[in-house]
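W.,

You were right to be curious about this one. When I first looked at the sequence I had no strong expectations either way, so I just let the prediction run and decided to look at it fresh. Below is the sequence, 76 residues in total, followed by the output.
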Amino acid sequence: MQKLLSDFAVGEGGTIKAVTGEGKIRRRLFDMGVTPGAQLTMKKKAPLGDPIEVTIRGYELTLRKAEAACVEVEVQ
């Protein structure tokens, strides 16, 4: 099952399938290691859902909800 990273619950994990978005946002995500094939796990979510913290490639990464909505993930 595929869903957007912004819709994940704390503790869910999966494999990145695609990174959508345009221009600067997409480039920034790629520069931070958010690339297809990478494994990630949702670690924390702020009370209002923005920002979120994920573990990817061995480090913690904090993303805004709008950035997370550009990442399609295959849920484990």
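Here's what jumped out at me. The radius of gyration is 11 Å. And, maybe more interesting for your project: Residues 23-31 form the longest helix (9 residues).

Coffee later to discuss?

I.
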